[in-house]
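Sat 14:20. Reprocessing the chain from the morning session after the first attempt stalled halfway. Input below, unchanged.
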Amino acid sequence: MDDQPIELARDLRVHDDIIGTIGNTPMVRLSRVTSGLRCRILAKLEFFNPGGSVKDRIALRILEAYEQAGKLRPGGTVVEATSGNTGVGLAIACALKGYQAIFVMPDKMSQEKIQLLRAFGARVVIAPTAVAPEDPRSYYSVARRLVAETPNSVLADQYNNPVNPQSHYLTTAPEIWHQTGGKVTDIVVGMGTGGTITGIAQYMREEGRNVRIVGVDPIGSLLYDAWRAGGSAIGLEAITYKVEGIGEDFVPSTLDLGLVDEVIQVDDAEAFLWTRRLVREEGIFCGGSSGAAMAGAVKAARDLGPERLMVVIFPDSGSRYLSKVFSDDWMREHGFLEPDRRLITVGEVSRARGLPSLVTASPEDTLLDVIGRMRKYAVSQIPVVDGEGRLTGLVSEVMLLDHMLGTDPDRLPAMSIGPMVNTEVATAAESDPLEEALPRLVASKVVILVDAARRPTGILTVIDALDYMAARDNR
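Finished this time. Tokens:
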């Protein structure tokens, strides 16, 4: 029997080690959670990296930079302050290179992340979350102290290491550009260390590509206020929030807020509810920072047209949050399972009735024809459109009855509805949050859903909203 080694074909994409599988993550078009939005949104799924997150991209490059500088020698130790994902990437690199690893994590991080790091043989030290960065108990300070106490050790220092944004400049940004065929117009990224958004923005700016860069920041973090202040965090304070992996209580040097066109704030409830929606409606098992990015992307896309192509970065997998975001008990304990009207769109409520296509009328239609249409489709009001299909008003059964009572019966067969049309009609886009549309709905009792050309696409009544919310409460 021939004992010569088997030659593997190159097209089988067999890598020499696990590091070779980092990057070139796939993109998926989002279609269900983006219903009602006109621009296309693609999600770049970074949990396809071997360590399960976008942070795999920076870990090996950071270690290699220290090796080339002679600061990390065989048998050395790598220390890092991390929310978990950077630690996993570093743990993989350390396993391949034979280094020891020590990771310092805030106490709000999930148990899954702690167990995962220990599975790689790393030492994990837990530090309090609710202390200032300069406090000796903070996870930044503890990490620096451990480096000072450990011979032949380095601090990976993702918050200040220029290799962090450089890694995304060299890999993530070109991938986005090539995967979209150079058609990307907007990129949405959750901000933490800022390496991802800064590297992507630098690439787009230096290449002269007209791409809007949007950062997402959780309420409680100070990055949004720092961006508004021109990049300065002087006088700003952060408060505790639940979502992991994004937001900061200081401005890392790896984050260039001057490259960011817009920063959108989201709260914990939005982040977690969007995370669960992505899993249940798109089948994308992602983490809370992905839900935060999605919440920001929806807000950023609300007024964009079909000519825009948005890419949103989903940083990691949901497998690290089973005891939190995907635990109904944890979500209830923190008040996150209550129906959130900010995440419900008027289009979603209108479609929940399960009615056939929208019934419309024109001003030239006769009163009797429109009454017959109402009877046939069991509706009490009908949008009226012009010859181009644009909304001009609304007629209701009450309006028609009022005109019939004061009109000679012999004139009814030929009478058009034109004079009976109410032109003062409340409207909304399908993507508008129910929360924002409710005042209009309460005031007018009916809201007509229209597209950008003011063509009606649906109708929403008070009873529709009541039925929908009652059904949600009873689930």
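The chain has three domains: 17-49+163-338, 56-155, 347-473.
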